[in-house]
């Protein structure tokens, strides 16, 4: 952007200086040409680095390595985000495998009956579950209870049944 502005100003300055020099004598014309050359040299070519130069995108090297490794083999977490640790790394591993790690936090499905209880996924043997009731008039305040693996639990308000299933 700055180079564009400088080249525009240098071209207009050159045009202005040449136009004004046509009306003067040769001595002034020589001084004007020297001024033009000095102006053009200082404005367009400078050995000092420009503080407004664009930088490379933040993840350009990482995205290049990710595309290279994707063409060679499977994509790894280190290719996507090399400093990922803990839960963030688990989420990235799951998304690269094509599954959503956090889908267990928002279970949705049909109303659970005794024959076909609503399935809640959990990594652990026990989990706290909240029952908001059914839809429409069947809704009630959220009732919280512990759900254990291998047992079904019935909501005391709406009689919906829940069951835990592990991954």
Automatic annotation (TrEMBL):
<dbReference type="GO" id="GO:0005740">
    <property type="term" value="C:mitochondrial envelope"/>
</dbReference>
<feature type="binding site">
    <location>
        <position position="140"/>
    </location>
    <ligand>
        <name>Zn(2+)</name>
    </ligand>
</feature>
<comment type="similarity">
    <text>Belongs to the cytochrome c oxidase subunit 5B (TC 3.D.4.11) family.</text>
</comment>
<dbReference type="GO" id="GO:0045277">
    <property type="term" value="C:respiratory chain complex IV"/>
</dbReference>
<keyword id="KW-0862">Zinc</keyword>
<dbReference type="GO" id="GO:0046872">
    <property type="term" value="F:metal ion binding"/>
</dbReference>
<protein>
    <submittedName>
        <fullName>Uncharacterized protein</fullName>
    </submittedName>
</protein>
<feature type="binding site">
    <location>
        <position position="158"/>
    </location>
    <ligand>
        <name>Zn(2+)</name>
    </ligand>
</feature>
<dbReference type="Pfam" id="PF01215">
    <property type="entry name" value="COX5B"/>
</dbReference>
<feature type="binding site">
    <location>
        <position position="131"/>
    </location>
    <ligand>
        <name>Zn(2+)</name>
    </ligand>
</feature>
<dbReference type="InterPro" id="IPR036972">
    <property type="entry name" value="Cyt_c_oxidase_su5b_sf"/>
</dbReference>
<feature type="binding site">
    <location>
        <position position="155"/>
    </location>
    <ligand>
        <name>Zn(2+)</name>
    </ligand>
</feature>
<dbReference type="GO" id="GO:0006123">
    <property type="term" value="P:mitochondrial electron transport, cytochrome c to oxygen"/>
</dbReference>
<dbReference type="InterPro" id="IPR002124">
    <property type="entry name" value="Cyt_c_oxidase_su5b"/>
</dbReference>
<keyword id="KW-0479">Metal-binding</keyword>
């Amino acid at each position: 952007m700055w180079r564009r502005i400088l080249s525009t100003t240098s071209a207009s300055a050159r045009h202005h200086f040449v136009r004004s020099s046509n009306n003067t004598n040769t001595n002034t014309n020589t001084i004007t040409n020297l001024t033009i050359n000095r102006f053009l040299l200082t404005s367009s070519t400078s050995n000092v680095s420009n503080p407004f130069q664009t930088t490379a995108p933040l993840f350009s090297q990482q995205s290049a390595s990710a595309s290279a490794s994707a063409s060679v083999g499977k994509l790894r977490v280190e290719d996507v985000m090399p400093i990922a640790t803990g839960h963030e790394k688990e989420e990235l591993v799951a998304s690269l495998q094509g599954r959503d790690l956090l889908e267990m936090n928002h279970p949705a499905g049909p109303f659970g009956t005794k024959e076909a209880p609503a399935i809640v996924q959990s990594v652990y043997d026990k989990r706290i579950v909240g029952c908001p009731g059914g839809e429409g008039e069947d809704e009630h305040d959220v009732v919280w209870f512990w759900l254990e693996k291998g047992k079904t639990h019935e909501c005391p308000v709406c009689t919906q049944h829940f069951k835990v299933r592990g991954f």
